[in-house]
Design brief:
Helix content is 75%, strand content 0%. The protein has 284 residues and is mainly α.
Amino acid sequence: MRPANIVTSVADILAGIAIASAPGTLTERAWPTALLLCLSTACLYGGGIVFNDIFDVETDKTERPERAIPSGRVSLPEASVLGMLLLSAGILLAFLFSAASGILAAAIALCALLYDKFGKHHPFFGPLNMGMCRGLNLLLGVSIIPDVLNHWSMLALVPVVYIFSITLTSRGEVHGGKRNNLYVAAFLYAAVIAFISYFSYVNNRLLWSLLFILPFTWMIFKPLLIAIREPIGKNIGNAVKAGVISLILMDASWSATFSSLTFALMIACLLPLSMWLSKTFAVT
């Protein structure tokens, strides 16, 4: 279920909540709803990953035999039941708040299943498909105030582009990759950073946002540059791992841009938790 990654999905929800509350319309009564949406995304992400391993079981027998299903620690029927329960719970929890949130959760589940079964095998639509999962996840957080969903929907393009970059990079994680893919990823990373910085500047919050944008930039580019110099599987895997976990700092940047520094620091505190989990559980 990739626990370290699930933490990053919760950070997406918190970033979406920060964006939605930019006009100051969020009240203390909204926090139980925030918890509901965080639980929803945790289930959706976990369920999507379970089905990823279900559909990859034949490939994993050769490339990643240590995973739960090919190693025999979990049977295929057991994994299928777990995946269905998690996705169903994620959708139900979102519907408990609003129809808009429930529809977004259902769309995330559908996109995850499409990626797991079909998308990952396509060089362009696969990364785009995975990016859509994260973009919708950000909007799931924004849906805490349904009336502002249309206004901020364009911001979902940022995680789409960012995850597109990570997924493109991951193409060479097992057998080594092509530098061209890594160069494209570096360009898209830079575009994401520029976009967030622009919004921070427009909102007169650039100074606060840089507290998170700068370490975010360092964390994603350091392993990526190593992978560009030597595009072997291990280096690419490290770049992918850093890209996934760094999502927390990107989400903190969104919060610093639209909400309070305190809220941004709260999101950033999820980073050490995710990094700790990544030492015990697989990220990719």
